[in-house]
Amino acid sequence: MRALFWLLILAALAVGLALAARYNEGYVLLVLPPWRAEISLNLFLMLCAVGFVVIYLLARAVSHTLGLPRAVAEFRRRRREERSMQAQRDAWRLLQEGRYGHAMRCAEKAGADDAAAGMLALAGWRAAHALRDVARSKEWAQRVRDHDRDGLRAARLMVEAEFALEERRFEDASDALRQFAASEGRHIAALRLALRAEQGLGNWREVARLVRQLEKHQALSADQAAPIRSRALREALRGLRDDPTGLMRYWRELDDGDRAEPALALEAARALVSAGDCREAQRVIEDALDENWDATLVLAYADCRGGDVLGRIAHAEKWLHQHPRDEALLLTLGRLCREQQLWGKARSFLETSIAVRPTRAAHVDLAQLLDRLQESALAERHYRTAALLD
Fold first, then answer.
1. pTM of the entire structure?
2. How far is it, in rounded angstroms, from Cα 182 to Cα 180?
């Protein structure tokens, strides 16, 4: 339809020009002594139009001829970029398919000055690492490093950290992540890698901090974060066994919820007992049990030899009003009374603990007490009972 429209316009224009030329009687006189020429105005206008077209076409031809080398170079550059981008797509696709050898061959197609050379080098590095080809992996790593100026430095550092963690080179991974954080900050993926690196290095305080950050950014669920954080805090407390002052300082820095967790309180108490600080161990256990009752923590209440034993007995008897049939609390009271040489009370608590629920520990403790009271026959009976219990 459009072609017909233009055809009609051209036909109308041709008719108009023909009619105008018919009534045009003008002429053009050209004088160049000793010559002179006289032509009609219509012919002159036609010659001008044809001359303009010819000159225009000649100029275009000359321009295209002079620009041919540049056009050829641009064409070759585009072809090279297209091949490079196709190689990049193929390399990363093959890498995800697990065809590492093919991916590496695709990566080798790129020249050093190709636009996608950096990304292809990164794909080649991953492929060589997956194939456990150490020599070629180092070669590709150097190629990627050469493209740091092209914006690949952050990607290289992340890949270096990831590969170092796979090879259990935790110090190298931590160093790469520190360089990354200095220029890029730490996003969730970097925090996850840092968590693995600090776990490998045994920096448990940093592990606990990173877990809290990942949980805050919803990169770890509460169920995932809880065991990791609990272990990190226990290991951190265990590492402070020889520094009771530092241990208590760190303990007070923890959240109330962490201090109330029985496993952490138990670890802190054991570390303080190991350091000989029974008073602080007693306080830690008491605070934790006031929040969460736990049998293992109750038993640890009698572990420390010395200190304010009478104070612990009084406190445990207060708990007994709230938990009158708790065999662990009765056993703890029996041990504390035995340490204080309150033989009658110790025997009563131990026998009550056995009556509530017979345990090997209670039978052994009662047998030892009876040996001390020179009731050997009865002590031997409790030893035999303890041996039969699981």
1. 0.69
2. 5
